[in-house]
Write a structure and sequence with these properties.
The structure is a homodimer. Chain A has a single domain, classed as Arc Repressor Mutant, subunit A, CATH 1.10.10.10. Chain A has six helices and three strands. The model of chain A has no long low-confidence stretch (mean pLDDT 94). Chain A binds a DNA duplex through α4.
Chain lengths: 111, 111
DNA sequence: TTGACATATTTCTATATGGGAATATATTGA
DNA sequence: TCAATATATTCCCATATAGAAATATGTCAA
C-alpha cells in the first residue's frame, strides 16, 4: 500500500505546507482564486488543485460570484486536528514545567 | 515534485493514522516495541518503521533497556500542530455560535 | 559459544502525489 | 457571436511512500 490519499482526511490534506498557507490566508476573509494566486506566489493551476483537495475534505467552501470563485475556510473541519493535539497538552506542559524547574535549580546553585 | 517526505515535519509524520495511534498509545507511558506491536495489531517491521519516522521528526524518544527499546512521546513536538490549529479556534467558535443562534430562533418561531 | 528473544533493515511493488505545461470550461460584456 | 477574463482539468514524470516478506543485527542467559 502507498500513503493515504491527501483527500482522505484533514490530517492528510494539511500535511502539505502550501495548503496550510492557503488556509491561513483564507482565515482573514473570503478570497477569489486570483487573490490566492497573487498572495501565495504559486501558479494558478497549482492553487486550483490544492483548493480541490481542501474542498474534498471540507476544509473550504466555495461560491460563485460572476466569473470568480470565492473560497472561504470551514474552520469546523480543523477541529479534529486541534482536539487530537489537545490530548497531549498536559504532557508538554509537564515537560515545560520540568525545564523551568531545572533552570531555577541551576540559578540557585550559581548564586 | 512528489509529496513531501513523511519525515519532513510533524504534520507529514502525523498524517498517517497508524502513527497517530502509536503516539496516543505512548501517551499513557513508555512502551517497548513488542508492547506496541501487540496493542496495535500490526506487524513488527511496520511498527519499527513507523517509529523510525516518528523519531525522525522528534515525536518520540528512545532508550535501550536490555534487549528492549523503550519509546516515549516527546509532546513538545506536537505543539506546532496545536498552535497552528489554534489560530482557527476563534473562527469555529463563531461558527458554532451562529449554529446555536439559528437553532434558538427556530425554536422561538415554533412556540 | 550458542540459542532465544527483541528490534531494525532491506527488497519489492502498487499507488498517489505536486509541479509544469498545455488546454478546457465557464462567464461576462460588447 | 466573439474576445477577454477567471478558473478547472488533463497529461506527464520523478519521487516517496506502506505493507509484505525475508533477513540482518543486537543482547542476554546458560
Amino acid at each position: 500500500m502507498a500513503r493515504a490519499a491527501t483527500t482522505s482526511d484533514a490530517f492528510n490534506a494539511l500535511a502539505e505546507r502550501r495548503r496550510r498557507d492557503i488556509l491561513s490566508y483564507l482565515a482573514m476573509r473570503e478570497r477569489s482564486v486570483t487573490e490566492i494566486v497573487d498572495a501565495m506566489e504559486m501558479e494558478q493551476p497549482s492553487v486550483s488543485k490544492h483548493l480541490k483537495v481542501l474542498k474534498g475534505v471540507g476544509l473550504v467552501e466555495v461560491r460563485r460570484e460572476g466569473r470568480q470563485m470565492l473560497y472561504k475556510v470551514n474552520a469546523m473541519a480543523i477541529r479534529p486536528l486541534h482536539e487530537w493535539t489537545s490530548t497531549f497538552e498536559r504532557l508538554w506542559k509537564h515537560q515545560l514545567l520540568g525545564i523551568k524547574e531545572r533552570a531555577e535549580a541551576n540559578n540557585a546553585r550559581k548564586q
